[in-house]
Design goal:
Strand order of the largest sheet: 1-2
Shape: extended
Number of helices: 9
């Protein structure tokens, strides 16, 4: 029995679809209702370029106080109700987190910086230490001599070589 190229192509496509379905990440809870998007890009074409609040308010009237859209596979939740926002705000640490930026964090090596650290005990520890160093005007006063010294150095370098501003900014 010979195997035709068509049979191989159909079997490969079927195997690929089955594998992609099996490896698809499972969602926990269902997302709130919202406009249906296109495959792959989701609701990118539906997102307004200006006056977003007008479109979001329209979606709120159509789908309720909480609306979800998908942007390039990532869900985005839009809250259109002050009551719902107040309720969510009471338990903000449960419902909020920072986005995970693979390129900016893991691949480049900045995942350990304060701005890319997810909320949790480590973030609170980082923030406490930063607050100790930079948290109040009185503490910032201690840094003024260093800031003034470095500003003078920068201005002198720029005065000598104004064409190479980018190099002077480093």
């Amino acid at each position: 029995m010979s195997v035709s190229p068509l049979n191989v192509a159909v079997a490969s496509a079927g195997g690929f679809l089955l594998l992609s379905w099996a490896l698809k990440p499972k969602q926990g809870a269902p997302l709130p209702p919202g406009p249906t998007g296109l495959p792959v890009v989701g609701n990118v074409a539906d997102m307004p370029a200006t006056k977003e609040w007008v479109t979001f308010a329209e979606w709120g009237r159509k789908w309720g106080g909480i609306v979800s859209v998908k942007l390039l596979g990532r869900p985005m939740i839009i809250v259109n109700s002050a009551e719902i926002m107040a309720e969510l705000d009471k338990q903000g640490s449960v419902y909020s987190d920072r986005p995970k930026l693979v390129m900016g964090g893991e691949l480049v090596g900045y995942e350990d910086t304060l701005v890319l650290t997810p909320y949790g005990p480590r973030f609170r520890r980082f923030r406490k230490h930063f607050s100790r160093l930079l948290g109040t005007p009185a503490i910032m006063e201690r840094h003024n001599p260093t800031v003034e010294h470095e500003t003078r150095r920068f201005l002198k370098r720029t005065l000598v070589n104004a064409e190479d501003l980018n190099q002077n900014l480093r």
